[in-house]
Amino acid sequence: RSSWLLLAPLLTPPVPVITAPPCPLCPEGAHRFQWIRNLVPEFGISSSHVKVLSSPAEFYELLKVQIKAAKQRVVMASLYLGTGLLEQELVDCLEETLEKSLQAKGSPDLRVSILLDYTRGSRGRKNSRTMLLPLLQRFPEKVRVSLFHTPNLRGLLRLLIPERFNETIGLQHIKVYLFDDNVILSGANLSDLYFTNRQDRYVLLQDSPEIADFFTELVDAIGDVSLQLQRDNTVQMREGMVHPYQGDKVAYCEIANRRVMEVINSARTRQELLHAKTFHSSHEGSSLLSEQGSQASGGPKPEPDTWIYPLIQMKPFGIQIDEMVTETLLTEAERDARIYLTTGYFNLTQAYMDLILGTRAEYRILLASPEVNGFFGAKGVAGAIPAAYVYIERQFYSEVCYLQQQERVQLQEYSRAGWTFHAKGLWLYLAGSDLPCLTLIGSPNFGYRSVHRDLEAQVAIVTESKALQQQLHQEQEQLYLCSGVVSTSTFEQPNRYVKLWVKLVTPLIKNFF
């Protein structure tokens, strides 16, 4: 076999679009997105528990505050942990909190679980692993560090592809940070750029034990099929677990699928039972369940006006829930609905492009200008990646113009001096509404990698609360405020010149970045 075939794009059948009958338990007037719970658990919460953050500094300060306040658990999933002073401060906060837990009277039961990507977390002599080793050595019974290694990087391919480039094959890309019952969903990694001048999105779900339990179980499940960092900086699999790149690939992927789907399905069953009990009890006038809940929490819980749906995408394991839900949302968006979609790396799948160009809703797509692309100024081949994104953007814009869709589908470029852009997600405004009722927030970029190669997770937040809708609207406006509308003249600027070799290579490699 010739070596270029090793990097051939993966061919997959189209994803079925979900249509669902209305739930017989749903009260009249309930939101129109409850079909999502046919696939994943639905968590009903009060909008007062949701806080949208706007800046990297706010995100970083919140991480430190939450770590210091944690009593039972700290669970963090990220692509990697950086090696600078700000990251060291986070590790110091973890050490301080663990130390405090050991000295506390009563049961010192704080547990720390960290999930990172193996290839990205092992890059360089000083890396995520060396940053976390002191914690592991000091608190071996309290700290778990799991390093996910894609099963697609194996054999000759693993031997031949150098460091950095091996990350193109597949990664652990989920970003979730939880502390006791508080959960932060984001697209940001644990690195100084994401704490200072790389713009992302962040949402805090406060006092949400069921959601925190779900993401704890999800990270545990991925951790169970990942390499475990040891105190001497070696790694090994848990006893009895198939190895991701030395063992049988099919067997490994089947075990991983089963483990993750167990988490999703058991949470879904739990939430359905809770929903059914709550529905029936509200019609019977009194409820043992609500009485118990009131006693436990010190008062009656407010009626949920916001629903959280975790959307998981792990194509290597045959799990494509996020893809199915996203495609359905794009398909079902009605005429005069508006979808604001943003990605730091504009490289949409063909299916997403076809839906955007072939459906009725208005689209405002926010993407990075070359100067705020995370690869801008990078050394070597990586330095050409912003130009490749310009080429992909220009091709899409040409298609929009060819179909005479410029009014309905608008591209906007984020530009901000001294900053890079990493925000991803979407906001859905129903026809006739000035506020969004749904947002997607998490790790996926809507590109080939997100759909086919990496482990991804985001949440759909659906809300009837005007206050939360206003928060989400302000978040969207603040991001789009730093942008300019793309036109034909955009691509005539000198900084948009794309070299011939980049144009020739981009179609061959676009599925890897």
Automatic annotation (TrEMBL):
<keyword id="KW-0547">Nucleotide-binding</keyword>
<keyword id="KW-0496">Mitochondrion</keyword>
<dbReference type="GO" id="GO:0032049">
    <property type="term" value="P:cardiolipin biosynthetic process"/>
</dbReference>
<comment type="similarity">
    <text>Belongs to the CDP-alcohol phosphatidyltransferase class-II family.</text>
</comment>
<dbReference type="GO" id="GO:0005739">
    <property type="term" value="C:mitochondrion"/>
</dbReference>
<feature type="domain" description="PLD phosphodiesterase">
    <location>
        <begin position="168"/>
        <end position="194"/>
    </location>
</feature>
<comment type="pathway">
    <text>Phospholipid metabolism; phosphatidylglycerol biosynthesis; phosphatidylglycerol from CDP-diacylglycerol: step 1/2.</text>
</comment>
<protein>
    <recommendedName>
        <fullName>CDP-diacylglycerol--glycerol-3-phosphate 3-phosphatidyltransferase</fullName>
        <ecNumber>2.7.8.5</ecNumber>
    </recommendedName>
</protein>
<dbReference type="InterPro" id="IPR016270">
    <property type="entry name" value="PGS1"/>
</dbReference>
<keyword id="KW-0677">Repeat</keyword>
<keyword id="KW-0443">Lipid metabolism</keyword>
<dbReference type="GO" id="GO:0008444">
    <property type="term" value="F:CDP-diacylglycerol-glycerol-3-phosphate 3-phosphatidyltransferase activity"/>
</dbReference>
<keyword id="KW-0808">Transferase</keyword>
<comment type="function">
    <text>Functions in the biosynthesis of the anionic phospholipids phosphatidylglycerol and cardiolipin.</text>
</comment>
<feature type="signal peptide">
    <location>
        <begin position="1"/>
        <end position="19"/>
    </location>
</feature>
<keyword id="KW-0594">Phospholipid biosynthesis</keyword>
<dbReference type="GO" id="GO:0005524">
    <property type="term" value="F:ATP binding"/>
</dbReference>
<keyword id="KW-0732">Signal</keyword>
<dbReference type="InterPro" id="IPR001736">
    <property type="entry name" value="PLipase_D/transphosphatidylase"/>
</dbReference>
<keyword id="KW-1208">Phospholipid metabolism</keyword>
<keyword id="KW-0067">ATP-binding</keyword>
<keyword id="KW-0444">Lipid biosynthesis</keyword>
